[in-house]
Amino acid sequence: MAVEENSVTPEQYLEAERTAEYKSEYFGGEIFAMSGASRKHNLICGNMFAAIHRQIRNRNCEAYTNDMRVKVSPTGLYTYPDVLVVCGEPVFDDAHRDTLLNPTLIIEVLSGSTEAYDRGKKFENYRTIHSISDYLLIAQNKCVAEHYVRQADGSWLFSEYKNLEDTVHVASIECDITLEEIYEKVEWD
After folding, report:
1. Vertex 51, ends 145 and 37: CA angle to 5°?
2. How far apart are CA 80 and CA 67, in angstroms?
3. What is the pTM (predicted TM-score) of this model?
4. How confident is the model at residue 36 (pLDDT cuts 50, 70, 90)?
5. Could you report the per-residue pLDDT of 95-150, keeping only the tens digit for each?
């Protein structure tokens, strides 16, 4: 595969990203600016992080919010999941320790501008990460959580939750999260 003259190398991207005022994703020689998040988006991310952190704090797992970059090594995508968890020893791309290679759980909060990408190409990339066992999509405009769990044969099992009383069980990190916790203080239009 030939690289275009105007394309950016991963090294150039990381050098610029580490001093940038705003976050950007990188894929295939291109840099993509990320937009800001809504109040609902921020509440949901905070709620997810709080619920998970409370349950894993005394275990060999770490939870991160949207400032921890992930490199999808097999495809070259650099991205910032909304919330992620790594269990076991975190593996980083380099000595800066700001680009994680081995997430266990990735959570994306869906917005109108990112929903198709989060469900499609981004999940396609995430599926190539050998360490990932769970992918959780959370709607911000309605009460819906979609949970994908990697099976032993490499396929993905899908479950959907739509009631505030429902509980999402994430076996890989031994956590149970209710939709009531996820949507705490979120106001519906």
Report:
1. 60
2. 6
3. 0.93
4. confident
5. 999 999 999 999 999 988 889 999 999 999 999 999 999 999 999 999 999 999 99
- Dist CA 109 CA 127 (whole Å): 17
Q: For residue 157, count other CB atoms closer than 10 A to its CB.
A: 9
Q: Residue 96 belongs to what domain range?
A: 37-182
* CA-to-CA dists, residue 6 to 12, 15, 29, angstroms: 12, 17, 8
The answer to whether position 158 is within a domain reads yes
Q: How far apart are CA 110 and CA 114, in angstroms?
A: 6
Q: Name the residue among 128, 122, 29 with its Cα closest to residue 136.
A: 122
Strand partners, 24: 33
Report which residue type is found at 157. L
Strand partners, 178: 167
**Close Cβ partners of 88 (under 8 Å, ≥ 6 residues apart):** 60, 61, 102, 104
88: enclosing H helix or E strand: none
78 belongs to a structural domain? yes
